[in-house]
Design a protein that fits this description.
This protein is of the alpha+beta class. The chain has 12 helices and 13 strands. The chain folds into 2 domains: 181 residues, Aminopeptidase (3-Layer(aba) Sandwich); 131 residues, 3-Layer(aba) Sandwich (Aminopeptidase), CATH 3.40.630. The longest helix has 16 residues. The protein is globular.
């Protein structure tokens, strides 16, 4: 088995992806963008044996930034935003190769002073992973909502909640119109709309992506913006990401003065049609905030009957170093290691 660790500027990254069905979140430009946002180092691990391939991107974070009192370097690793996760080639989709790849991945992380890793799987590309990888590899975190675009448009729309059809028709009668444009064309208007939305819903700080993030995202092929206008005013908009037959809704918002018209319902209707017209197979709507079955999940669930488990992987690579970080976190919180470890958050010392 050949083992490689790739940087985002290594031509091998894209070469490997050409042999794998993948999503937007696996692309090097997106992983690099996430690395800048999170002040981390972007990498990908590749294991290969003939035509059998295993690939996973991740970000390496310095724990010394979290705990300046550390006397030696400790790192952890995390997925970029979205649904990157493991990829397997067709010939590599067997339990033996999957097990060997995971073991090699852990050994590589251990050699790099990485004490823990948290990874988010791609629901569409990893739907059968629980049968391929060793027991204990995954946590079944929640459900995601996915639209299968293969049936006819009529069949797809039959799955949409009746109230949403009424909202869509009322929006049209109100004068809502749709545009699909490059994100760069409406960058400032979208950023203003997005920030207003995050303020209104009192979003966690992690969801406040700044203008430079969106400006750099706009330069990556496959990024589009669906805009719902009322006259000359942007009523709602959503960034979505298209890659290899999969379209992901990414980040979006609604202008406060149009909440009564629910223009984001129109966004999803129009993106479903747009994605199908371009020959895509899936529209990935995702789940609730933090994986919860909240109002966000309930809204998305109104567009499709299909649910796919959202899996995560949580590995403690170096138990002694992990425990040391938990102790430091407990001291900082004036708490106990047991209390820190009781959190459902992983790694616990970052809760």
């Amino acid at each position: 088995m050949l083992i490689e660790t790739l940087s985002t500027d290594d031509s091998r990254w894209l070469e490997v992806l050409r042999h794998l069905r993948h999503d937007f979140h696996h692309q090097p430009l997106f992983v690099q963008l996430e690395a800048v946002r999170m002040n981390a180092t972007p990498e990908a691990f590749v294991a290969s044996d003939g035509e059998q391939l295993f690939f996973v991107p991740y970000l390496v974070r310095q724990c010394n930034q979290l705990f300046p009192e550390l006397k030696f370097p400790i790192c952890d690793a995390v997925s970029p935003y979205g649904y990157p996760g493991f990829l397997l080639s067709d010939s590599g989709r067997n339990p033996e190769f999957a097990a060997k790849s995971i073991a090699a991945f852990k050994e590589t992380l251990a050699s790099r002073a990485i004490c823990a890793v948290f990874l988010r799987m791609n629901p569409i590309l990893g739907e059968d992973y629980e049968t391929l990888f060793p027991s204990g590899t995954f946590h079944d975190s929640s459900q995601t909502v996915v639209v299968d675009l293969e049936p006819s448009e009529e069949q797809i729309l039959k799955q949409v909640r009746r109230a949403f059809h009424q909202t869509y028709r009322k929006g049209k009668a109100f004068g809502l119109t749709v545009r699909f444009v490059g994100l760069e064309e409406e960058l400032d208007s979208f950023v203003e709309l997005y920030r207003q939305t995050m303020d209104r819903v009192q979003a966690n700080e992690a969801y406040y992506f700044d203008r430079s993030y969106f400006a750099n995202l706009a330069r990556i092929p496959g990024v589009q913006l669906c805009v719902i206008d009322h006259g000359s005013t942007m009523a709602a908009a959503c960034v979505f990401l298209e890659c290899d037959g999969i379209v992901n809704t990414h980040l979006g918002g609604t202008r406060t003065e149009f909440l009564a018209q629910s223009p984001f319902t129109t966004v999803i209707f129009e993106v479903m049609r747009w994605a199908k017209s371009r020959g895509n197979r899936w529209l990935q709507l995702g789940g609730g905030v933090g994986g919860r079955e909240d109002s966000v999940f309930h809204f998305k669930a109104g567009f499709s009957d299909k649910r796919i488990p959202f899996l995560t992987s949580r590995f403690v690579i170096n138990c002694d170093r992990y425990k040391h970080l938990v102790s430091l976190a407990a001291n900082a919180k004036i708490s106990t290691p047991e209390a820190v470890l009781s959190s459902s958050f992983f790694p616990a010392y970052r809760s």
